[in-house]
Automatic annotation (TrEMBL):
Primary location group: cytoplasm
The protein's role, per its UniProt record: Contributes to the regulation of the Wnt signaling pathway. Down-regulates CTNNB1-mediated transcriptional activation of target genes. May be involved in neuron differentiation.
The family this protein is said to belong to: Belongs to the NDRG family.
Protein name according to UniProt: Protein NDRG2
Keywords assigned: Cytoplasm, Developmental protein, Differentiation, Neurogenesis, Wnt signaling pathway
UniProt biased composition (Polar residues): 340-359
Gene3D superfamilies per the UniProt record, alphabetical: alpha/beta hydrolase
Recorded GO CC terms: cytoplasm
Region (Disordered): 311-359
InterPro entries, sorted: AB_hydrolase_fold, NDRG
Record carries keyword Cytoplasm: yes
Organism name: Nothobranchius furzeri (Turquoise killifish)
Length: 359
C-alpha cells in the first residue's frame, strides 16, 4: 500500500488525547496524537529511563520535518508505570514490572485504542521493551526504530561506574551516565543541566529508581542471526529494523552488537557522526530523514512525497553517498528503498552484511 502526500505545507495540529490504560501490571499513561486510520499502523513510542514522552521525544516530534509523517500516522506515546510527568509515588506494595512484563502491557494498549499494528520507536530501555514486544508479537509490529538498543543483560552500573567515579552516586547522576557519553558529560554543561532539570523537576525519582532497577536486571534478548544454509528458524526480529546510535553515545558497542545478532536482510544500522547519546535531540532532522525512508521501505509514503526532502538534502551538501537496502522485501517485488542522507558514506563490514549508514 502506498500513501500519497498532499502539497499542503500548512501547520498541522493533530488532536491529542491523554489517557491511563489499565493493564495487568498497573496503569500505563498514554498520549494519543492524531486520528487512527484503519489502513495504516500507528507510531508507538517508548522513552528511556529517567525520561518521559516530552523530554525524550518532544524535540523530534515538534520539528517541522516531522509534520510530513504525523499528517498520515497517528502517534501513541506510552510511558512505563509511574514515569509520566508529575506522577505520584507508586504504592509501597506495588511490585514494579520486569522488562518482560512491561513489554506485555503493550498488547493491552493496542487493544484499548483499537490499534491493529504499530511502527515502534524506542530509546534505551524503551527500545529494549519494543524489541521484546516485536519478538513476542510479530503480527502486531510492522517495523521498529531502536535508538541506543542494548540487547545484553549486563548491569547498567558497569557502564555508570566507568564514567562517574568522581561523582556522588545520586539517581540523576546514574541516569545522566546512561543517557550521555563521556564527552557530553564533561563538556556540554548546558545539555547536562537541562536533563538534570528534567529528571529532578518533572520525574518522580522514587518511581524512576524502580524503573532503573528493572532495566538493570533485564535478561538478554537472546536473538540470533539467521545463517544462510543453516537454521533459518532462529529467534530474531521478523520485522524491518532501524538501529540508531550517535558515535559518541555510551551505547555504541551495544548497538553494534545488537546489529550483529539481527537478520541482515531486514536490519539497517545508522551511526550518526558528531552525535552523542540523544540523537533524536542532537540531530532530529537526520533522524526524521532516516525515519521517512524507513517508513517508505515498509510500503508507506510514496516516492513523490520524498521530493522536497531529497531537494533539501542535496542543497545541503555537495558530497553525498547513497545506500541501497537489499532485503527480502525486494525479492517479493517491493520497491527498493534508497536512503539518501547528508554526508552519508557506505561502511563495508567484514563481519556483518547488514546495511550500515554513517552520517
Amino acid at each position: 500500500m502506498v500513501l500519497e502526500e498532499t502539497d499542503n505545507d500548512s501547520v498541522f495540529e493533530p488532536q491529542v488525547t491523554d489517557e491511563y490504560v489499565e493493564t495487568q501490571f498497573g496503569d500505563v499513561h498514554c498520549v494519543m496524537m492524531g486520528t487512527v486510520k484503519a489502513n495504516r499502523p500507528v507510531i508507538l513510542t517508548f522513552p528511556d529511563v529517567g525520561l518521559n514522552h516530552k523530554s525524550c521525544f518532544e524535540t523530534l516530534f515538534n520539528h517541522e520535518d516531522m509534520h510530513e509523517i504525523v499528517r498520515h500516522f497517528a502517534v501513541c506515546h506510552v510511558e512505563a508505570p509511574g514515569q509520566q510527568e508529575g506522577a505520584k509515588t507508586l504504592p509501597a506494595a506495588y511490585p514494579y514490572p520486569s522488562m518482560e512484563q512491561l513489554s506485555e502491557v503493550l498488547p493491552g494498549v493496542l487493544k484499548h485504542f483499537g490499534l491493529r499494528s504499530v511502527i515502534g520507536l524506542g530509546v534505551g530501555a524503551g527500545a529494549y521493551i519494543l524489541a521484546r514486544f516485536a519478538l513476542n508479537y510479530p503480527d502486531l509490529v510492522d517495523g521498529v526504530v531502536l535508538i541506543n538498543i542494548n540487547p545484553n543483560s549486563e548491569s547498567l552500573m558497569d557502564t555508570v561506574t566507568s564514567k562517574i567515579t568522581d561523582w556522588t552516586y545520586t539517581l540523576p547522576d546514574k541516569i545522566l551516565a546512561n543517557l550521555l557519553g563521556k564527552e557530553e558529560l564533561q563538556t556540554n554543561q548546558d545539555l547536562v543541566a537541562t536533563y538534570r532539570h528534567y529528571i529532578t523537576a518533572t520525574m518522580n525519582e522514587a518511581n524512576v529508581s524502580q524503573f532503573l532497577r528493572s532495566y538493570s536486571n533485564r535478561s538478554a534478548l537472546e536473538v540470533e542471526r539467521p545463517v544462510p544454509e543453516g537454521n533459518i528458524n532462529v529467534r530474531t526480529l521478523k520485522c524491518s529494523s532501524l538501529l540508531v546510535v550517535g558515535d559518541n553515545s555510551p551505547a555504541v558497542e551495544a548497538v553494534v552488537d545488537c546489529n550483529s545478532k539481527l537478520n541482515p536482510t531486514k536490519t539497517t544500522l545508522l551511526k550518526m557522526a558528531d552525535c552523542g547519546g540523544l540523537p533524536q535531540v542532537d540531530q532530529p532532522a537526520k533522524v526524521i530523514e532516516a525515519l521517512k525512508y524507513f517508513i517508505q521501505g515498509l510500503g508507506y509514503l510514496s516516492s513523490a512525497s520524498m521530493t522536497r526532502l531529497r531537494s533539501r538534502t542535496a542543497s545541503g551538501s555537495s558530497t553525498r553517498g547513497r545506500i541501497h537496502s537489499h532485503g527480502a522485501e525486494e525479492k517479493r517485488g517491493r520497491a527498493r528503498t534508497d536512503i539518501s542522507m547528508e554526508s552519508v558514506s557506505t561502511v563495508n563490514q567484514s563481519v556483518s552484511k547488514s546495511t550500515e549508514v554513517a552520517c
